Amino acid sequence: xxxxxxxxxxxxxxxxxxxxxxxxxxxxxxxxxxxxxxxxxxxxxxxxxxxxxxxxxxxxxxxxxxxxxxxxxxxxxxxxxxxxxxxxxxxxxxxxxxxxxxxxxxxxxxxxxxxxxxxxxxxxxxxxxxxxxxxxxxxxxxxxxxxxxxxxxxxxxxxxxxxxxxxxxxxxxxxxxxxxxxxxxxxxxxxxxxxxxxxxxxxxxxxxxxxxxxxxxxxxxxxxxxxxxxxxxxxxxxxxxxxxxxxxxxxxxxxxxxxxxxxxxxxxxxxxxxxxxxxxxxxxxxxxxxxxxxxxxxxxxxxxxxxxxxxxxxxxxxxxxxxxxxxxxxxxxxxxxxxxxxxxxxxxxxxxxxxxxxxxxx
Length: 362
Prior knowledge:
There is one protein chain. By secondary structure, the chain is α/β, with parallel strands linked by helices. The protein is 35% helix and 18% strand. The chain folds into two domains: 7-172 and 342-361, 3-Layer(aba) Sandwich (Rossmann fold); 190-341, Rossmann fold, CATH 3.40.50. The chain has helices at residues 22-33, 72-84, 100-112, 126-132, 137-140, 151-159, 203-212, 227-236, 274-280, 293-296, 311-322, 331-336, 343-361, and strands spanning 7-13, 39-48, 60-65, 92-97, 117-122, 145-148, 165-168, 190-194, 218-222, 243-245, 261-264, 285-287, 303-305. Strands 3-2-1-4-5-6-7 form a seven-stranded parallel sheet, with helices on both faces. Helix 2 crosses helix 3 (100-112) and helix 7 crosses helix 11. 47% of the residues are buried. The mean pLDDT is 92.
């Protein structure tokens, strides 16, 4: 009997300029797949920004340096040349990160003259991609299959008129061994935001809501970005004295004993790792309906949903929590609500889908 050849999966990413959610997902997936005897996994980064984001399992092949400033066609030509130089063409190529990576990969596949299954694996909403100029739904159509990391991305693909086969996959989280020790403090009127300080995260919505509430709520911010601009926004709404900027924290939930809720006011999210991460620590979440929120959040059980950019609605929810008209969810219920996002479970699901695609492509 001839030996069964292993499946060769390649992930191509545009570039990573900062650490956040995507680098963790790539590293976690690479580590998980490294233990699979029937699968070989490799990462190609089109442009190396100089950031060392990878672990030993995700060491990438870099095609350009940032100072090269390659064009769209430059990256496609370089990736095509790389593919032609391989002893074996990938069975599956996962075009990851920006939607435009799918179009670059498709052009490279055409130029290289290889046969492979191209998977669109965007880690942002297609709306965000369009607004940032890194591709949208028109790019996703170049794929054979799409991996949708949230109901929001899945809906965008469907509403974009694409007949593309779309598979739901989750970003995995490492489940902590224990819940954050929050005791039973009742409502502390304290919120925690974890994430970058950029426009799309819409922190001014929280500042406005804090200005409207009957009881004074405070906000702890764990993240980096447009710090001075964010401080100015808090000052505009007169809540600076109730906002604490903590900078980047390796474990922002470690000292969250007095936090009543994690707040996520984003206008859009591809997945939003913060939601399941906070819940896994037993901390309920108030969030806009972005990323995995509509799938995960069950109002009253593990958090609350608030309309995008609706500071009035958020202030009303906070008032009702303070007045005990809405409950603070139980930590154990919060933890149990994200069991499906446990890292090994999520990565194994992706592995199984890759195996199926490899067999279909073969």
